[in-house]
Amino acid sequence: MCGRYTITVTLEELMLRYDTYYQYPARYSPKYNVAPGQQVMAIVHDGEKNKLGELRWGLIPEWAKDEKIGYQMLNARSETLAEKPAFRKPFERKRCLIPADSFYDWKGTGKHKQPMRIMLRSREIFSMAGLYDTWTASDGTRISTCTVITTESNEMMAEIHERMPVILPRELEAAWLDRQVTSPDKLSPLLRPYPSDQMMAYPVSTRVGNVRNDDELCIEPLSLLL
Q1: What pLDDT score does 110 carry?
Q2: What is the four-CA torsion angle of 34, 143, 69, 53, rounded to 10 degrees?
Q3: Mean pLDDT of successive 10-residue segments in the chain (226 residues)?
Q4: Does pTM top 0.85 for this prediction?
Q5: Which helix (H) or strand (E) holds 11?
Q6: Any alpha helices (H) in 85-191, and if so which ranges?
Q7: Strands (E), the chain
Q8: Which family does it belong to (predicted)?
Q9: Rg of the chain's alpha carbons, rounded to an integer?
């Protein structure tokens, strides 16, 4: 699964990368340890252009009775999006991009799991494929949430974990956001493992396992911290 990631660039870099606008610039800050349940940056298409805003990580389907279900919907398996009730409609009409410049996963088993930082060799921002939905609480409060889509791991990631987030090549981002496309047959082929030779990984401190740790030490190579 994908349970932690980073987005350490400035707001200006983010807006330039996605040719978009943002309504709440004062609330943005670089993040070194994004965790489930937090507000995360996401890009949707409003019918005319890309829009950058915040969604809460952990999808709450519009029909849910309790918002706690969101903690069970952090990730969505690409292979079953068209079948699962929570993801079927968002897959057709509510797709988003979740910007990141790396994500974390844990290598190994038991008490000896080693956190790894995984990123593109170019160290550029990339887009994780996501879905979003809006849920209305009994008091009328509306909460917009999202989930990260995962797929089987490529050769490099397979040494760390069997699943990885779907990273969309830049040339396919517009197709994923296109609201005119609703057919799973056209969308599913976009959800494939990113090329292994364009990615890299290195070990980092176990401090990333604590959500309270959100600073540059999270991304320091372990060899530099010892």
Answers
A1: 75
A2: -30
A3: 91 91 72 96 90 94 91 95 95 97 91 93 97 92 96 96 97 96 95 97 95 96 73
A4: yes
A5: helix 11-18
A6: 85-93, 173-177, 184-187
A7: 4-7, 21-22, 31-34, 39-45, 50-57, 75-77, 95-100, 102-107, 114-120, 126-136, 142-152, 163-165, 167-168, 199-203
A8: Belongs to the SOS response-associated peptidase family.
A9: 17
